[in-house]
Amino acid sequence: MSPPAPVSRRSLLRGGLALGATAGLARAASGCAYLPSETPARVKLPKSAKAKVDGDLVYFNWADYLDPSVIKGFQREYGVKVIQSNFDSMEGMYAKLQAGNQYDIIFPIAKWVQKLRAEGKVRAIDHDELTNADQVFYSGSYYNDPWYDDKSAVSVPFTVYKTGIGWRTDKVDSMTGSWNDLWNPQAAKRIFTLDDQDEAIAMAALLLGYDVNTAKAKELEEVKKLLVSQKKYLRAYSSDDVNNMARGDAWIHHMWSGDFVYLRQGLVDKPENYDFEAPTEGTPINSDAYAIPTNAQHPGTAMLFIDYLLRPEIAKKNMAYLYYPFPVKDAAPSFAELVKDVPAANVDLADLENPDVFRLLGADEVQRRAATWTEVKAS
Amino acid sequence: MATDQAVRPGAQPEARPPRRRSGQRTRLWGTLLALPTAWIVGFFVASMVIVVLLSFGRTQADGKPVFGRTTANYEALWNDVYLQLFLRSLGYAVATTLICALIAYPVAYAIALYGGRYKNVLIAAIVVPFFASYLIRMYAWSALLSDEGIVNSAIKGTDLGDGVQFLNTPYAVIGGLVYGYIVFMILPVYASLERMDVSLIEAGKDLYHGPLRTFLAVTLPATRAGLFGGMLLVFLPALGDFVSAQLLGGPSTYMIGNLIQQQFLEGQNWPLGSAMTVSMMVALTLLMIFYLRGTSTRARELQ
What pairing do the DSSP bridges indicate for beta strands A252-256 and A155-168? Predict the structure, then answer.
């Protein structure tokens, strides 16, 4: 069989171009993507929704970041479906929101809450609508007025974690409790640093006595030198801390506290061979939060979902699944029990008043830090 | 005829005698073809245009990438570090391509000439694993080769030594690339071997060539198109790859693909990332043109 009648290449191209151009124009006209626009200095906060079922819940989170049985329970109790999708980075999440995708609930990291709020992309959350609000917003709670969200007007705290060092006690016996342990010759070529621009720079900055958010050229130069000096002890840069430790490739790992707890309590056969320290120079502390985008179609269901997740028994379930502490008052003791052998991996209230948090930086500052990190990894 | 066209897109359809078609049928095909063409134009070409435009853009203070008319992003590319990365990636990609060729050719040869009725089964056995995501296969490798993984446990179990550190080395990165892309080499080589007239080999032997000379003088030239095509198909994605270096690499195996990926994620510098992408594309296109011209000229001379 011979191929069908040839459509002339030119007419095909012309037709396709016309159709494609229409699609492209429609896209360009619908949003002002990539055209310069300075955000207004003050955005009015979109109003909070009432907590009542107004449709299925469109959920947008890191993969595997809540106990599936908890989500099933919510579906059963409220008779709604939870439509899940995942992001693999904050930048990815932000890009999707920017493109106009509609989600009912998102789980941003602290500084992204600040950014989303400043740009009017998230709506207010009225604490009076949440029956369990007193679990996180009780008198004296750090979250009544956290650094990233004035009066917690648009966010409810989800998890909290610190960055420290996990190590194998059966392989290494010369830990000093300092970030210098990531240069420990006893574990040369068995040390991993997190493949994360902020965390890696912060670790070096703390050693040098600088702010974790430093973007000063001179300080970044020193950070770079310090990090390059670490390379001869390093096996790799990787954020897959749990698996690197579990597989035995790492003896010392720059690590997130929750990942360590998961490794020790949930994964390995001999937990006594694993320990965690929060270095004395300071440890970055970070929080994740729940937030409701301004363009959410079912903000009422999202409010109910947040309220549901704040129930102490639900928080306990999630903590036992995630191994990250939740700042939910009545659930905190159960996490303390879980990490009683490695209290350094817990984050208590006193830890929260901490200057070492990753703040929202300007684009030029981020780019300077990125250039430093690139040069470290490339050299 | 149809297969010939698929292999050589440049083949002249005009050579066929012109036939009259009813206008209706032409229009039907036109409509059917317009949709995929629009798809390509709308989503492939338009995205490319955005990347090119962004490469002259800048990042606003709030982190949003916007169009502009600056060449600063291209000027920023003149950086020793980036050049070094490019050379490293080039080295890995060349090594990957050569190793792929050395592995793929015998495999394709064995299947095409000695596969008999199992040919299709064997090809399926090679292709099916590639239906699994590249990422998953890389993870599987790291589980296999880790210090306390299956291979090292076996080595320790048989008292052959204390185990070997495979992971987080340049060799692991190249190994990952070879595994990731080898199927792109096997298939074109297999196709050209399959199409080759086996009697040519017999003729070579009849003319008192040894097996090696027959191979070099007959088989290899006859399948050169497949081999060159396969090399191109392996080289290009290997050069731009970032997954292998990220999952199997060490502290000093950062590749150009990782660099570009970083600009779009943590670096929040889409314009710089776009400039890198465009430069890479231009460089690779030039490379490809020279390569294709070189190989096709040689092919013509030998005909």
Answer: antiparallel
3 state SS of A294: coil
Residue B94, domain extent = 79-302
Q: Which residues fall within 8 angstroms of residue B87, CB to CB, at 6 or more apart?
A: none
Number of neighbours of residue B23 by Cβ within 10 angstroms = 9
Instruction: Give A-chain residues touching B162 at CB under 8 angstroms.
Output: none
DSSP A122: B
What's the one-letter identity of residue B131?
F
Q: How many helices (H) and strands (E) does chain B have?
A: 17, 2
pTM, rounded to two decimals: 0.85
- Chain A 122-161, residues with CB within 8 Å of chain B CB atoms: none
Instruction: Say which residues have a Cβ less than 8 Å from residue A138's Cβ, sequence separation at least 6.
Output: A329
What ipTM did this prediction achieve?
Answer: 0.81
Cβ neighbours of B247 in A, within 8 Å: 240
CATH 3.40.190.10 is the classification of domain A57-160+286-352: yes
pLDDT single digits (tens) A67-114: 999 999 999 999 999 999 999 889 889 989 988 999 999 999 999 999
SS3 B144: helix
Dihedral angle of Cα B63, A372, A374, B265, to the nearest 10 degrees: -20
Domains: count for chain B: 1
Return the ∠ at Cα A161 (arms to A157 and A165), rounded to 5°: 175
* Residue spans per domain, chain A: 57-160+286-352, 161-285+358-378
Tell me the residue type at A129. Answer: E
Contact partners, residue A332, CB within 8 Å, separation at least 6: A325, A326
Q: Which residue has the tokens 């050169």?
A: B224
The answer to whether the CB atoms of B250 and A236 lie below 8 A apart is yes
Question: Using a CB-CB distance cutoff of 8 angstroms, which residues of chain A are in contact with residue B146?
Answer: 247-249
Task: Return the closest-CA partner of residue A230 out of B74, B118, B250.
Answer: B250
Which CATH number do you get for residue B243? 1.10.3720.10
Q: A161-285+358-378 maps to which CATH number?
A: 3.40.190.10
Asked if residue B129 belongs to a domain, the reply is: yes
> For residue A39, what is the DSSP state?
P
